[in-house]
Design brief:
Elements: H1 2-25, E1 32-39, E2 42-43, E3 48-51, E4 55-59, E5 63-71, E6 74-77, E7 81-82, H2 89-96, E8 103-108, E9 112-116, E10 122-127, H3 138-145, E11 149-154, E12 160-165, E13 171-173, H4 174-178, H5 188-203, H6 211-228, H7 234-249
Antiparallel strand pairs: 1-2, 1-3, 1-10, 3-4, 4-5, 5-6, 5-7, 6-8, 8-9, 9-10, 11-12, 12-13
Helix pairs in contact: 6-7
Amino acid sequence: MKKTLMAAGMLCAASLAVSGIFAAEINPLEATEWELTSFEGKALTGATVKFGTGKVFGSFCNSLSTTYSLSGDQILAGPMATTLMYCNTPLMDAESKFDLSNAKYQLMTGNQLELTTASGSKYLWSKKTTPTVGMANPASVNCEKNGGKHEIVKDKNGNESGVCTLSDGTKCDEWAYYRGECPAKVTTQEQKIHKILDDHFAKHADKFPTAKEKTAVIEMLKTTFTNLMKEVNATLKAQYQEMVTILGNYKVK
């Protein structure tokens, strides 16, 4: 009888230990896509966020992504990678404050998720139940947002992958385009900004007659964005850093 009780006790302890291990590995946020319903207590829609295995993807005005892990009710996230698009002020404001570094989460009744950033900004999300056709992930969303055509293709072995066809006919792997690796060295956003600079210099040729004057303007803009990076959150810092890179790639004519 004594041996039976000891065996039962050991089995119970082992079961609890195993349960604890598996419980620790469960990520309550993983594999669920959430739709924004309010920001700072005011109704706001048009954004989504999805937590994957070690990586989180978001879509506001821009497509966002970063690495993350959980520690209790806290989110430990890395620097945010983002595209550079602009839209209506409320959504842009919500995006600029969406910093998951040391943010806290709370799962609520009614399939809702509350995220609170370290600076106190609150986002309320509802579980997305019906995925949008053709918008399966942030990479495909980014493709469509930038005027590309997204499609799923199969290789000779039957493996599927997403391809983004740009307006000029260039075909990019969806994730390479999302990361800015395709087209090589020049992104759609970079082309737009370079065209704006070309048009500005052409319109005001009397003020910028030589390459020297144009270069001075570019350097001034780079310095401005570099200084701004010291005073903003991680999301805007990444955007300003990309702007500095784009300006650095501009060829003065």
